Amino acid sequence: MTLPIFLIGARGCGKTTVGHALSQLHVCQFVDTDHWLQEQAQMTVAQLVSKEGWHGFRARETEALEAVTAPARVVATGGGIILSEYNRKFMREQGVVIYLSAPVSVLVDRLEAYPKESQRPTLTGKPIREEVGEILAGREALYREAAHHVVNAAQDLDLVIAEIQTALRLARAS
Ligand SMILES: Nc1ncnc2c1ncn2[C@@H]1O[C@H](COP(=O)(O)OP(=O)(O)O)[C@@H](O)[C@H]1O
Ligand SMILES: O=C(O)C1=C[C@@H](OP(=O)(O)O)[C@@H](O)[C@H](O)C1
Ligand SMILES: [Mg+2]
C-alpha cells in the first residue's frame, strides 16, 4: 500500500472508524483531516464554524488535506471535502479514493447514536433526519465523481474492510 488512500462519504458512513481499523491492519499511518485541523486550530469544528463560518472551515479543510497527504497513509476526510473541485481532483490524482456509501436511514441511525456535535454542527439548521437526506442528495454525484471505488458502508465493519481490501487488490492487479 504505497499510494495514500482517501476515504470519502457522508457524515456517519464510517470514514474515521474504517480508516483507523484499516491502518491498523496494514500497519500504516492513519490521519483524519478533521482531527488534524482541530489540533492545528486548537478549536473544535463547531467553534471554527462559529468564528470563521463554513467558508473558513472549508479553506482549513483543503489545507489539512494537502498537509496530511503522504505515501502509505490512510486519510479519513470530512463529509464535505468533495464540495471543492480542487479537493476532488487532488485526491484522485494523489491516491486511491474510496467512497463509503450508505443509505440515509443507516446514516441517520448512526448519527443519532453518535452525534458528536462539536465536530458536526448543523449544516442546514434542520432536524437530522431531514438534513442527512437533503445533504446526501446534493453530494451523491460528487462522491461518485471523486471515487475510484464505491464500497457498501452499511455492512459490519469487518465486511467493509474486506470489500476495501478486495478493491485495492483489484486496482493493483489491473
Ligand atoms: N460499519 C459500521 N457498522 C456499524 N457502525 C459503524 C460502522 N462504521 C461506523 N460506525 C459507527 O458510526 C458512527 C460514525 O462513524 P464515524 O467513523 O465517526 O463516521 P464518519 O467519520 O464517516 O462521520 C460511530 O459511532 C461508529 O462507531
Ligand atoms: O459533511 C460535512 O460537511 C462535515 C462533516 C464532518 O466530518 P465527518 O464526515 O467525519 O462527520 C466535519 O468535517 C464537518 O462537520 C463538516
Ligand atoms: Mg469522521
From TrEMBL:
Copy out the cofactor comment.
Binds 1 Mg(2+) ion per subunit.
Please list the residues that bind ATP: 12-17, 120
UniProt EC number: 2.7.1.71
Q: Does the keyword Nucleus apply?
A: no
Gene Ontology molecular function terms on file: ATP binding; magnesium ion binding; shikimate kinase activity
- Superkingdom of origin: Bacteria
Tell me which SUPFAM superfamilies the record gives: P-loop containing nucleoside triphosphate hydrolases (SSF52540)
Q: Where Mg(2+) is bound, by residue?
A: 16
CDD domains for the chain: SK
Supply the InterPro entries for this chain. P-loop_NTPase (IPR027417), Shikimate/glucono_kinase (IPR031322), Shikimate_kinase/TSH1 (IPR000623), Shikimate_kinase_CS (IPR023000)
| Cofactor(s) in the UniProt record | Mg(2+)
Catalyzed reactions: shikimate + ATP = 3-phosphoshikimate + ADP + H(+)
Q: Where in the cell is it found?
A: Cytoplasm
> Which pathway does it operate in?
Metabolic intermediate biosynthesis; chorismate biosynthesis; chorismate from D-erythrose 4-phosphate and phosphoenolpyruvate: step 5/7
Positions that bind substrate: 34, 58, 79, 139
Pfam name, any one: SKI
Positions the record marks as coiled coil are: none
Query: What exactly does this protein do?
Result: Catalyzes the specific phosphorylation of the 3-hydroxyl group of shikimic acid using ATP as a cosubstrate.
Protein name per UniProt: Shikimate kinase 1
Name the source organism.
Phytobacter ursingii
